[in-house]
């Protein structure tokens, strides 16, 4: 293992891989990526439903989410040399009650205020857009520029291209702590005692980022939350749009090969006792609840067979938006974490902006509202 680099990236998920690629592409010669597990993209990067959306987001995320869909996703397959299966056929966020519609209307109004093309549609329009949906749905928000992609091929595409440009990746390399040298964060200490040093360090390790950042006095307020995924057998083609719901019961799409891929919340996540991060499995209670949620919106899938299920950890930021940027109280440290379960769709533009930040350049859009120190005491 090389002991020194210009930039060390902690975390081999899609954000870390994308940042490594754009850094190497822009001319940074020595980039090292450290992944704690035995495989790249082992965390949330390959454990999500592949949504590439703008609708339903906090307004602080919208400028860069919109920029990414306009400037990165349309040509990403050509850029990475792999088929990321990007499909831009729109996103319906569904509602069954007046409370649901009120929530969706607020999200729609907020998104429209920053220029996103999204609108509310009634029950008849929902059926016209997707006739396979339940007649219990009374309305939805509709964003025609949203879509979905394949998380696995996208993450590994960035990994492959970064490797080709000379980035060094080390798996099975869990980080124990960071260390300051003459007041600047410069060293990364692995759990086996190995010490690596770089001019700049990018921390993009999901929830584990919180403990690592605390070793140099930086706190990133977030919790760990389980997100469940499952895949059905191949079904006849039904629709290409992305689906979600006002209450986040589930989200997902039909993949190019015919299977449906869904992420879901069963309502039991926050009380589930799973302290061992290696135990990423679902169970009969959570999976059946997730299936019932889907069946309540897509009745035709009631007889579909589930062929695989898995779960992963979300780095759930306290205010629902990520921490992206330099740490003012820890010179030399840049962070990108707390994506709260919706980081995949913005990963290309986030990776590019991290490259800009590490080069001391202004980002393509203003992300100052996502500053890592936004929770500092104000009294």
> What is the residue-mean pLDDT, rounded to a whole number?
93
Q: Biggest sheet: strands, sense, closure?
A: 8 strands, mixed
Number of helices, where a helix is a run of at least 4 consecutive DSSP H or I residues: 9
| Shape call | globular
Q: What level of helicity do the residues show?
A: 10-25%
Secondary-structure element pattern, one letter each:
EHEEHHEHEHEEHEEEEHEEEEHEEEH
CATH homologous superfamily descriptor of the largest domain = FAD/NAD(P)-binding domain
Examine the coordinates and then state which fold CATH places here, giving the name of the CATH topology of the largest domain: FAD/NAD(P)-binding domain
Walk me through this protein's architecture.
- By secondary structure, the chain is an alpha/beta fold.
- It folds into 3 domains: 167 residues, FAD/NAD(P)-binding domain; 54 residues, no CATH class; 96 residues, D-Amino Acid Oxidase, subunit A, domain 2 (D-Amino Acid Oxidase, Chain A, domain 2), CATH 3.30.9.
- Strands 1, 2, 8, 9, 10, 11, 17 and 18 form an 8-stranded mixed beta sheet that branches. A 4-stranded mixed beta sheet has the order 5-6-4-13. Strands 14-15-12-16 form a 4-stranded antiparallel beta sheet, covered by helices on one side.
- A hairpin with a 5-residue loop joins strand 14 and strand 15.
- The mean pLDDT is 93.
